[in-house]
Amino acid sequence: MKTVGFLACETTLPLHFGGIGERRGDAFEHDLMIAALAPAFEAAGLDLKVIDWEAPIADFAGVDLVLLGTSWNYQDKADAFLARLDELAAIGIKVCNPPDLVRWNIQKTYLRDLAEQGAATIPTLWLTDVGLSDIEDAFKAFECDRLVVKRQVGAGALGQVLVHRDDLPDPAWRFGHPAMVQPFLPAIAEEGELSFIFIDGELSHALVKRPASGDYRIQSLYGGVETAFEPDAGQTAAASAILDALPFETPLYARIDMLRAQDNRLMVMEAEMIEPYLYPVQGPQLGERLARAVAKRLDV
Ligand SMILES: Nc1ncnc2c1ncn2[C@@H]1O[C@H](COP(=O)(O)OP(=O)(O)O)[C@@H](O)[C@H]1O
Ligand SMILES: [Mg+2]
User: Could you read off the pLDDT of 46-75 as tens digits, one per residue?
Assistant: First the structure.
């Protein structure tokens, strides 16, 4: 029987699976992924093993393929994470998605590459750090009244700042990280962020994520709520176009997050191909689709 490793981390894993006992607020998403995948993988003749990506390498003995499942703590140790993926690949484990793609996807500057390929992306200033004068320049460049400042290496809206034109940071303020600055798109609180889950390049399901009232971040950690929706042909085509712009082979899994801009076009917010939460509750067929795609890659 082939074994698939589902990479998690010490704060998504339950204690009895090697977690440190204090789980992230969104660790229930880990449980939902496992609940969706485990029966489908078993039915496909695959053994699913949940492993901390930082576990001793010996724990990976017998694993044929790894999925980068809920390894959500890599942000502050990206080099170690990438090194581990290379190490797994070097001992013959199929790493999904592959280290080269992950290395490209970990730095949000990949959005620039997608834009060069013609993808519709949110206008962005790329800065090594951000201070008050950069904020003032961005307000001029984008002619908007709110800005979002985010880390170039980031996830889960961690450390993100929303700046209002009438409430500027003080002159001593520094963001403190390589950053991207974007105009705030009000569609986030209206239509919401649209997510498209692709397995082996085929749309599995789509959902809309909306923030809690008074917030603009759609993540469950901040009270965001997601609902399945049936995308129309135009919406699906907009998301597929992002996959087509990738400078890599079709990935096993991808989550394309999109947000409508003022000109009514759907723009890519993120093309998540490292360890995206794949919203199994909104796509009950996810486990089966993923199991089938993995089995194909393992010649099962
Ligand atoms: N330009 C923007 N306009 C409005 N909301 C935004 C914008 N950029 C980010 N957000 C909000 O912040 C969240 C996190 O930003 P995102 O770029 O997806 O980074 P990550 O999910 O990797 O932390 C988004 O899901 C959305 O709710
Ligand atoms: Mg996001």
Answer: 999 999 999 999 999 999 999 999 999 988
**Along the chain (300 residues), what's the average pLDDT of each consecutive run of 10 residues?**
97 83 91 98 98 97 98 90 98 98 97 96 97 97 96 87 96 96 97 98 98 94 95 97 96 98 96 97 98 96
CA dihedral 110, 112, 116, 120 (to 10 degrees): 100
Closest CA to 198 of 250, 129, 249: 250
User: Is 110-121+188-273 CATH 3.40.605.10?
Assistant: no
Residue located nearest, by CA, to atom 12 of ligand 1:
217
The protein residue with its alpha carbon nearest to ligand 1, atom 14, reads: 157
- Secondary structure letter of residue 280 according to DSSP: T
Q: How many angstroms is it from 155 CA to the middle of ligand 1?
A: 9
Question: What is the CATH code for 2-99+287-297?
Answer: 3.40.50.11370
217 ligand 1 Cβ < 6 A: yes
